[in-house]
């Protein structure tokens, strides 16, 4: 659909045009309205509609002056005049300012439909031509980002200058943004999902459609934006700076946020946006690109899905070496199958790395070395791992594919979890695993009604067989184990004086307070209140 902006100083006429005319049936939507030329200028500048339908006679700034201004600023916008019969000769001369047509008051719906059809055809012609020019400019700007030869830089600047509208041979200044796909986060979004068109698309398919989605988005809000693919999953967005906007940003944070949401909604892609609202002339655009790339690299520390502006992240000292990591102690914790402690050690270490802003190349090398040694442990003869060892080259590739510290942590912990799994398989038999699973169920659900039937159904065993192997492996009955866990939890809660005994009884799964007290006395030799007094 094409957008139209309506301008008329008569409020009733304006409301009638906006609300009564069936614009949508003609493939048009009303993007905004203005009450005179002066009022319309600022709004047109912000909205950048495809079509401006303006009255001729208006206070402050009439339609002719507005049309002249539009042609000077946005020569791709289509102008239609709205006038009375007595002003017709006046409008004929006004068509020289570039209007596509005119409508006579009072408005006739058939006449509107005919004029709009002509205007839409003109819009399409202009759009195709404009898109071709924008694509050429984007290609030249992309080349300029990396060009080292001063001679070639000058040639590119001249070619860009020729393509600039209304600027003679001089080229514009540009702001620059990078849109970078968060591959790991996007993979989790795409898995098992379909896009809005019902197409079961892979991550690669979604990435291939990203330029089209960006171009459509910017066509609606910033037609002067140009999109260039730098590499798969990373695009540059160039927006010509407007001197009259002064220090105002080319786009607001909300507009960038809407772009991010649009990409996520249509393609199931997570993207990080690194944005410089500071404009650079063509001679300095390569340096601007370096600054924006450095900003995008903050994703490594901050995680995926960021919207980052130059100035948001303050440059700080980056340590040139990694803090010490007690690898031997960490391996010992893993060998003792203390998984939670091992995971905490890794998490705390990488949190320290994040705070120190360690250069990511050092982190990559450290991660590769650690994964390499984990592989050696996994493939020791005692663990009997049947899988082929992962070669260092493959480890190198898998680590360098990580875009964030979070992904590196996840990759290391996957390998560590595999190692723990093999250790557990070696040290326990099948029945021990089942008993361990039952104990975990009881530990997590002790406050709920638990029966031998409910437990046996969860581990796919008969109640009698579960009773037998549980007593064999633990030396106690399931009921005794449940009672012990509940009473241990009760003792912890008794340390809180705000909890009443009956509340504690219910919290650990006993509806009868008296039954709870009798169990407590039987096991501890004192009542709950006496136990609390001795704490």
Instruction: Sketch the major β-sheet.
Output: 5 strands, parallel
Question: Which strand order does the major sheet show?
Answer: 2-1-3-4-5
Shape: elongated
Quantity of strands, as a count:
10
Ends distance: 74 Å
Rg (C-alpha, Å): 35 Å
Number of helices: 23
How much helix, percentage-wise, in residues? 55-70%
Which residue ranges are poorly predicted, with pLDDT under 50 across at least 5 consecutive positions?
Answer: 166-171, 191-200
The portion of residues forming beta strands comes to 5-15%
Structural class: alpha/beta
Mean of pLDDT: 86
Main traits of this protein?
535 residues, 57% helix, alpha/beta, 5-stranded parallel sheet, 5-stranded mixed sheet
Concise account of the structure shown:
With 535 residues, the chain is of the alpha/beta class. It contains 23 helices and 10 strands.
